[in-house]
Amino acid sequence: MALPPSGQFTTQIASDIHRDGLGVELLSSSGSIVAEVFRCDRDKTVRVSCWSNSVTDDVLAWLLPYSAEQLSCFENGAPLPGINTWPIYRDLNTNA
Q: Which of 24, 78, 81, 95 could cross-link with 67 by S-S, CB 3.0 to 4.6 Å?
């Protein structure tokens, strides 16, 4: 899949044992996490969180299918729900 829009972002995959899942983190050019798509294996959900105005709809249009490809399925092999069902939470009260 292509690089994130405008080349101002990078991604990394992160495991979280406390939340029991795996996430795709979107990092700004300064290395701050500005968004995350998190696959929770405990309750079989996917949640999108954004912490910066730089995460525009165009960026999300790239990030969601990219994350679906990277996260592929839940730990037990069950398929992820469709990306159009993933809730998107925006907390823009941070300095990211």
A: 24
Local confidence band at 95 (pLDDT 50, 70, 90 cut-offs): low
CA atoms 76, 69, 50, 87: torsion sign: negative
Other Cβ atoms less than 10 A from the Cβ of 38: the count is 20
Distance set, CA 60 to CA 5, 49, 75, 76, 94 (Å): 9, 10, 24, 26, 18
Residue type, 75: E
All structural domains of the chain with their residue ranges: 8-90
Phi (first) and psi of residue 62, to 5 degrees: -85, -45
**Strand extents, DSSP E, the chain:** 10-16, 21-27, 33-40, 45-50, 88-90
The span from the CA of 60 to the CA of 41, in Å, is: 22
Beta bridge partners of 81: none
